[in-house]
Amino acid sequence: MKTYDTPCKLLLTEDEMPKAWYNVKADMANKPAPLANPATMQPVTAEELSHVFCDELVKQELDDTTPYIEIPEEVRRLYCLYRPSPLMRAYRLEEKLQTPARIFFKFEGNNTSGSHKLNSAIAQVYYAKKQGLKGVTTETGAGQWGTAVSMACAFFGLKCQVYMVKCSYEQKPYRREVMRTYGAEVTPSPSMNTEAGRRILAAHPDTIGSLGCAISEAVEAAVTTPDTRYILGSVLSQVLLHQSVIGLETQAALKKYGIKPDVIIGCAGGGSNLGGLLAPFMGEQLRGEAKYRFVAVEPAACPSFTKGEFKYDFCDTGRVCPLAKMYTLGSDFMPSAIHAGGLRYHGMNPTLSQLYHDGILEARTARQLDVFKAATLFARTEGILPAPESSHAIAAAIDEATRCREEGRAENIVFGLSGTGYFDMLAYSKFNDGQMVNDD
Ligand SMILES: *Cc1c(COP(=O)(O)O)cnc(C)c1O
Q1: pLDDT band at 2 (very low <50, low <70, confident <90, very high)
Q2: Each residue of 241-261: pLDDT tens digit?
Q3: What's domain 51-57+117-230's architecture?
Q4: For residue 390, how far is its CA from the centre of ligand 1 (angstroms)?
Q5: Is the N or C terminus of the chain more exposed, i.e. has fewer CB atoms within 10 Å?
Q6: What percentage of the chain carries pLDDT values higher than 90?
Q7: Concatenated DSSP letters for 194-249?
Q8: Which atom of ligand 1 has the smallest separation from the CA of 387?
Q9: Domain 9-19+72-114+237-432, what fold?
Q10: Does the structure show a pLDDT above 90 at 114?
C-alpha cells in the first residue's frame, strides 16, 4: 500500500476561493492574434461584437493587458453552491499502475450540469442580466453547456434558447429534459428555424449536425430576437478567463499542501477547461517564476492541434462569427460521431493556439477505445464515472504515470477531470458490449 503522504482531498475553504479571474493573455509576450472581421480582415471592434455579445463580455474578450478581473459578488455567491471543487489525490489509481508518480485531479463534475461549463455560464448570464437583456441563445454539443446555461438562466430569470447538435439531441434525451426542467427551449440543429440551418439542411439533408453549425443558428437567433445576445461555452477568451477559477483553486490548494506540479494535463475541445486549469501555472512560467509541462489531449477523430493548420478561420460552419487565428481543421470539418461530443469542435482557443505554436504547450491525441479503457480503469479505482471528454485527460495521465514507473520518477501529475459521464451511458454501453470502434 502506498503511504498517504498527502490528504485524499486537498480542500480549500470558501474564504480561500479566488476573488478575481486570471487573464493569461496579460502575461504573454506573443499575444494571440485579434478576432478579425471577415469582410475587411481588420481586427473586430467592440462595437461590431456588441451586436452578438453582451457589452461587459466584449470588454473581457478584447482585454489582453489586465491580469486580474474581479469576480462579481453575485457570481461568487452562485459559485459557492458547488465550489470550491475538490482537488483529489488518485491513490488507488496510482497503486493500480504501480507508479511512483503522484496523481492529482481537479473534479469539476460536482454540480447538476455535470461539468466545468457552469463556471462560465453563471458569469455570462450574470452580465446579460446586468445589461438588462431578456434572454440568451446558445448551442450545445454533448449537452453540458446547454444544461449549464439553462441552470444559470434559471438563477437569473432569463429566457434560454438552446440549439442542440442533432446527434446528441437524439442520443441524449435525458440531457434535453434536464434543460427543459430548468426552463430552456431546446431545438435540434440544424433546424428549419434559421436561415443558416435551412442552408445547411439543403446541402446536407442527412447531417448529424456539428457544433459549428449549431453556433451559426444560435447567433442568428440572437441577432434577430430583441434584447437577446448569444453566449458561447468554449473557444473564446472570456470563457478561458472565467474557467481560470479551476486553475486558481488548484494552484491555491497545491500551495497550501506544499506540492509543485510537474505535468498539467487537460482534454481539449475548444480549450476552455484546459485553458482554465493551466492559466495561473502558465502565468508563473511566462513570468519566469516556475517551469511546468502542459499537455493538451484531443480525440484522434478531431485533432485540431496536431493535424490542424494555424490560420484565420471561421468559428462556425455558417460563417456568421468573426474569424479567429487558431489551429483549425476547417470550419466545414464534420468529425465522425465520436462519443466525446464536447470535443467535436474544428478549432481551438486562440490563446492556447498561440502557446502551442510557441512550443510552450504540448498536444497529443487519444483514440476512442483507449479513452474508454482509461475511463473504466478510473471508474473502478477512483469510483467516479468520468465523462468521455475528461477521459482523454485520464488516458494521458495514465501514460505519464506509466512513463514515471519506467523511469523511476516520482513526478506530480495534475489533470482536469472536467465532468461526469452519467449522460454518456449509450457510449459506455457500446464499449461494454464490445461494439465500440476507434472512429478516426
Ligand atoms: C465541453 C466539455 C469539454 C470540452 O470543452 P473545452 O472547452 O475544451 O473544455 C470537456 N469536458 C467536458 C466534461 C465538457 O463538458
Answers
A1: confident
A2: 999 999 999 999 999 999 999
A3: 3-Layer(aba) Sandwich (3.40)
A4: 7
A5: N
A6: 87
A7: SHHHHHHHHH-TT----HHHHHHHHHHHHHHSTTEEE--SSSSHHHHHHHHHHHHH
A8: 13
A9: Rossmann fold (3.40.50)
A10: yes
